[in-house]
Structure formats: structure tokens, C-alpha cells
């Protein structure tokens, strides 16, 4: 199953627009250039000041790098020395930028450990950040990837993860840094996907059509599934997780009229894939548009919403009154499960998964072979 399909041949490399330019370690101060010109012409700073009608102190400070070349000064230098004002201002701008970058590089030393908790190597492999061994450049690449102007702003955004709603799987733990990077990949891809404004009725109708795809292979269902969601105002993304990230899916709102369902292939079986999709869809339909619902971790206070999403997803996939009648009959052999799944028009692996969740059949049941395994394509 190709995670590249989620780009729909529309978004391409999410960071392809970024250009990386050579940045020298040293930039000559404009005052040094001015000093060299004055020496060549045998002019003193005092004489230059007299010709420009300015204080000698100003040019002494410019030469020493203590005062900037302002636009008015640049125009005067153009008239007296014959070098365009734009050149002086460009020299000044480059020098001040260099000073700011140098100061920033020094400040990055305090966030080195934080930066390296992110999956930098995997982000490089996916073309999201530039390959570099320099810690300062790595920090800048990370800020660029997250569209954050500073690490102060970035940490504020990072801390927001600790206040969102999560769904928990007690046997798995995920580090927050790979999670944030994975969520950012979803944002970048979702921004480039055109959707209709979200419409609840259209989305429910789309979900009914998507349910009929559960017996199909990914190569058949992914493209129409993505299209149906987009027509209803939802972006569906299938994005491979980072190595230290264990979760199934996420539901959230990019903007008020554009929802996102972002999934992995955790457990790699069709019953888990489809249940996760409809679980996340339930969050979009039932719960706050300000919340971020993540299947894989937990914060306090989310049990009610998760129970609602679980019940909605289970019922949408397998009508619960039909399942209860089937369970009451007590026959769970291959033929009966297959026949029942055909009657309700859903993949038999999904029925097996729900029977196991009800403890009607064991987790190691021979019926597990009815579940279809999905794999990432390299």
C-alpha cells in the first residue's frame, strides 16, 4: 500500500518549494568597505563627513561597525563616492542578517538535545529537511519544516499536544517528537488537497459508500475513498509513521470547514484499518472541532468521547442488532462467519474483529486468516 498515494499526485514533495542557499561564515561589514574606498581615494572620515554634511562621529562609528548605514546616508555616499545607494544598503542588510544568524546559532546550543529528539534522519529520507551534519543547520531546517519563526514559538506549539484529547492503547507508548513531525506531514499534505466545504450529510453518505469498499484491495479502494472524503470536506491521508511512533490514526480540523483523517497501518489488518477510519470519522461527526483526537496515547478525561466513537464505528460497520443475533446463535465457524459477512456486505475480517472484541472468539482464533493484511509499498 503506497503512502505516496495520499499525495494524490497533487501535492508532491511537501517541502519541494524550499530552496537552500549557501550562507558564508563571514560577511564583510559595510564600514570595512567604506574604509577601503576612503583609503584608496586618500579621503579621511572627517572630509567625507564634511562633503556629506554629516557628523564625523557617524562615519567613525560606521567604519567601526557600531552604526548602520541608513537610506539617507546611503544616498549621500552615492553622490560623494559614486557607488549606488542600493549597493550600500544591500551590504548593510547582508551584514545585519549575518549578525542575527550568528546570534541565533549561539542560541541554538540550548535546544540541541530537544532538536535531536525529532526523527531527523527519517525526515531527510522523506525529503522534508535538508541533509546536514551541522547542528545549527539542523535546527534551522526543523524550524523551516514546522513553519516556526523561533524555538520559543515552536515550543508553545509543541506544548499544545499535552492538552489535546487522546485515545489510549496501554501496550504502546509514543514519543511526542515523532508524533509532532508526523502530524506536520499531514498538515502539509492536507493544505494542498482541494476539498468541498465540510457537509455533515454528504460525509455520512460518503461513509456509507466507503463501507462498501471493505472487501476491495487497497489498489481499488484508496483513490475513490480519497475522492469521496474530499467531496464531503474531509482529507483522508495514509502516512507511514516514524520508527518511534505507534498509533493508528488522528482526527482533527485543519480549518473549520476542512477535516482531516490521518492514518497509519498499525497492526496491518483490514479490520483494524477500517475500524480506525470509521472511529476517526465519528470524532469529526460527533465531537469538538477544537480537539485533536489521537489513537495511540491518552490524556485524562477522554473516555466518554472515545466510547462514543468506538460505538459509532462498530455500529456503522456491523449493525449491532444483527451482530447480537449472530452471536446468540453461537456458531462461529468459517462458513457461518463468511455467510454473515456477505449478508451485511462487509469484509469477513471485520466481523472476526468485532467477535473478538466481544470475546465471542479468542484473539488467536483460526478465523484470523479471514483478516486481510496490508503492507506499505517501498
UniProtKB/TrEMBL annotation:
Organism, as annotated: Bradyrhizobium centrolobii
CDD domains given in the database record: HTH_XRE (cd00093)
Protein name, per record: HTH cro/C1-type domain-containing protein
Pfam families: Peptidase_M78 (PF06114)
Region described as Disordered: 1-21
Record InterPro entries: Cro/C1-type_HTH, IrrE_HExxH, Lambda_DNA-bd_dom_sf, Rad_response_metalloprotease
HTH cro/C1-type domain span: 33-88
UniProt GO molecular function: DNA binding
Family membership noted in the UniProt record: Belongs to the short-chain fatty acyl-CoA assimilation regulator (ScfR) family.
